[in-house]
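On to our target:
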Amino acid sequence: MKNPFLVPFCLFALLVFIPTAAQAEPPFHLTTVSWVVATRNNLDVDDRYVTLIGHVTRRIGDETYWFTDGTGSVRLDSENFDLPIGPKIVIGGRIDQAYLGFGHLEVDVRHWHYAKNP
């Protein structure tokens, strides 16, 4: 005896349970500045992509900025972008740990945009 629901069920199962690129975890993880700072000298998170929401508080030199989200402050290295000072923005970047304790903990900015007001 044929089951009329077998073919539709199999098609549904294939669509639901086969992973696709759209279901893959995004490379940027929403986090806080305090978490980034707490991971200092933890090489497991070096080069991890993060997303931060907050404000640039000041610019130091041509490519370096200070950023805060209210939980702490971290340096941003923005080689390709001029970041606005003051308004709320969303930063997507890569954690860059100090090598063997030399240098600074910073986030290398890969992209940014203004945060939407709720």
